[in-house]
Every structure is written in structure tokens, then in C-alpha cells.
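Hi R.,

Here's the chain you asked about this morning:
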Amino acid sequence: MPVHELAQLTWEEVRDLDRPRTSVVFPVGATEAHGPHLPLDSDVIIATAMARAGAQRLAAKGDTVLILPALAYTAAPFGAQFQGTLSISGVTVTAVIVDLARSLSNQGFRLLAIANAHLDPEHLTALHEAVTLGRADGLLPIIFPDLTRRPWSTRLGEEFKSGACHAGQFESSIILHERPAAVRDEVRRGLVPNPQSLSLAIKAGKRTFEEAGGPRAYFGDPAAATAAEGARLIDALGAILEEAVRAEI
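And here is the predicted structure, written out as C-alpha cells:
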């Protein structure tokens, strides 16, 4: 079955979809500092790649899938002190997702699956709150596989599991695969590893990248990134999204 991009369809083409059997995928990212080597929209690039990979897997098994335009602004307080990071409140993010879910419900779609690549705690809380509110309001199911939680967190490599994974090997590999021209590669190759764990810093009450030990807004080992690793990670992200949707339908 096909994968559709909502923004490329006409309203009549959307009307003619088998909407009760169509899964909607929503890529969610941030405009946020990602070291001195990756673009501010890295999370959006990764979320979009995850959405497409998951959609292709679902379509290969007979589902019709509709991909929404990506959300590029969200809660990003950890990176807010870095120029270019644009952070909005988690309450706003929750409201946007619930309102989208309501609109999709009114149009008769089956479910809304969030492909998320931004791991700021306030943002994750906002997404979980949207799932809860959507359920309470009787809207279509909102599916959100949280990559920071099991079983998903164990499937994305050692750096990801360590928590030292912002603009490091994990994210840099995916951007190298998806948009290599956007990577400042000479800078990337010269960066020394930063093993400070964001997840441990969050548990310790740190609230910014600088407090967590990332004065240049990166964690992990960006110099170790490869496009081949990026391809593997995108496939893993797509599988996670597909399995989360399959568990619902």
C-alpha cells in the first residue's frame, strides 16, 4: 500500500483515502543546538527519517500511511542558552498534538503515531501528556514510542544506552546518511569524545547542557559517526515505530 505525504495531496485526494484504515505519522523534532557540527534542525531530520522508515515498513505489510509535515518547534530548555535554539512551553506542545489528534479524529483516521527524535525531559513529558489527554477525550489513539524507555532504548546502540548521545555518534551518523552536506565534517572529525551522560545528569537535577557537561552542546563521540551506521539506526527507528503501531492495531 502507498505512503502519502499530506502536504503534497489535494483535499479531494485526502477525502478519497480509506481513512478508517489509514495510519497517520507525525515527525516531531526541535530547532536546537547540536554541537558545532550539526544543523539546528537535526532532530527534525532524524524524526522525518524515522517516520518514513516506519511508514514504509507499515505500507509493505498492507497499511495505508499518511505522513504529516514535521513539527520543528518544541520545548528545548536544555539547549536554550545556545543561540538559535527556539524553545516553547511543553503545555503548548501538548495542546498542538491534542488539537491535531482531534482534527484527525473528526476526519475519521485510524491513529496518530509520533516519530520523535527530541529527548528533552519537558518535551517528553508534553508528549506523554498528549497521549493521556487524547485517551481521556476519546480521540483516535496517539501512539508514542518513547526512545528513552524500554524496550526501545536498548535497540539504538551503546552510545544511546549510555545517555551520552546528543549530537554524538548516534545523531551525527543519521545526519551523515540523511543530509551529508549539512554536516560540518571537518569540524566533526576534530571533536574529542564527551562521555558525560545526559540521562545521568537529568537524574542528578541538571537543567542545561552546560550544567550536564556539554559546553559546546554535544555529548558522545561525533568523530566516530558514519553514514553506514546512520542507515542501520534509521532502520532500527523505523522498526520501533512500526512495532508500536502494530501493537495498537
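One quick note: The chain has one domain: 3-248.

Cheers,
M.
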